[in-house]
Amino acid sequence: MKATVPHMGNVYIGVKTLFDGLGIDYVIPPKNSKISLDIGSLHSPEEICLPFKIMIGNYIQAIEQGADTVVLTGSCGPCRFGEYCELQMNLLKSLGHELDFIVLDYPKDIGIRELMRRLQRISSNSPMKKTQKLMALRDALTAVNLMDEIEGLAHMYAGYERNRGDCKKTLDKCREDALKCSTSKEMIRHLKLFREEIKHISADINKNPLKIAVIGEIYTVIEPYSNFYIEDKLMDYGVSSKRGLTPSWWVKNTALSPLKINSVKIRKNAKKYLPMGIGGHAVECIGEAVTAAKEGFDGAIQIFPMGCMPEIVSKSILPTISKDMDFPIMSLVVDDMTGEAGYITRIEAFIDLLERRRDNVLSGC
Question: Residue 320 — φ and ψ, nearest 5°?
Fold first, then answer.
């Protein structure tokens, strides 16, 4: 087995840590780019959503490096992501590629035993003992949590940094050097070092930067290439941002969902506007919008791929939240035809709106 995973933000760091710890062969696809998207768009159905196309590009690039097994997370409800496995297997088979898919689905949907069986399929090629395998899993979870913490700190501190760009440079360096780590222990040491470095970036606590919450569909929110690196751009503008959907959040939410104690605060805040799950992460989108308004953020940006059914429902609810809570929310829809210039113009216009709105409040207008 030579495993691979599709890119989705910093997921590759946790996967690399796990596979290095297990001692199994793997391929990390090249970083997402126009090449990945072009490959995926060429072979995918025209009307399918953006994440599907980018993933197909990832798989084909990984196959060229010898990958024969794909590890993929599952989804729930009417979201198309829940059907990706079958659709992608059939598509790749039609292209002459026979890949084995291991789907890590929600325990409440497939049961704990089935989830453990699928995890066993990943580790069955490892020469490590059982205790070493458990330690590898622990290290992978630690790495995911550390990387998400580093990223979250960088995005929030960016509004307070004295030297514009310090947070972004440190975050980019952390990601770049993470690929050079050859063992799980080395990866964790590396991430802990950068966590301390990001905490000690020179900051001006007297600044009062704009604070924007990034919400929406989980893939396009987490994967920077699919959203035109919106969080990096917000850092460039000196805006502090926060994103609730992260790989570590997904792990925790998945583990706690059978007990119905997952994302309690988010579900509570969403209940008034969306009292039931409709698939994907629509409830989280609504709950995060309400949470951001209550926590004093200046606004929120929803991002989702064209045709995403759960997020279309969320988009129709967000204007009501915006009106009820006097909280600006902008929705951005992305696909393989989205123009970056127009996209950036909308972000800049939204930031200008928030700045004028704050100035009017401070001047008493």
Answer: -65, -45
pLDDT of residue 303: 98
Helix, strand or coil, per DSSP, at residue 128: coil
Whose CA is closest to 215, among 181, 252, 266? 266
Sign of CA dihedral 156, 162, 165, 167: negative
Please name every residue paired with 20 in a beta bridge, in sequence order, or none if there are none. Answer: none
Measured in whole angstroms, the distance separating CA 104 from the mean position of its chain's CA atoms is 16
Give the CATH number, domain containing residue 22: 3.40.50
pLDDT in tens, 240-278: 999 999 999 988 988 887 778 888 999 999 999 999 988
Confidence check: pLDDT of 59 > 90? yes
- Same structural domain for residues 197 and 333? no
Q: What is the pLDDT of residues 217-238, one digit of tens each?
A: 999 999 999 999 999 999 999 9
Q: Which of 207, 229, 246 is the last residue of a domain?
A: 207
For residue 85, give the H/E element and its range: helix 84-94
Beta bridge partners of 253: none
| 287 vs 264: CA distance, rounded Å | 10
Domain that includes residue 336, residue range = 209-365
Reply yes or no on whether the pLDDT at 365 is more than 90: no
Q: What is the pTM of this model?
A: 0.94
The partner residues of 102 in beta bridges, in order of sequence, read: 71
Which residue type is seen at 272? K
Distance, in Å, from the CA atom of 187 to the CA atom of 184, rounded to the nearest integer, reads 5
Question: Domain holding 349: CATH number?
Answer: 3.40.50.11900
The rounded distance, in Å, linking the Cα atoms of 135 and 137 is 5
Residues 87 and 47 in one domain: yes
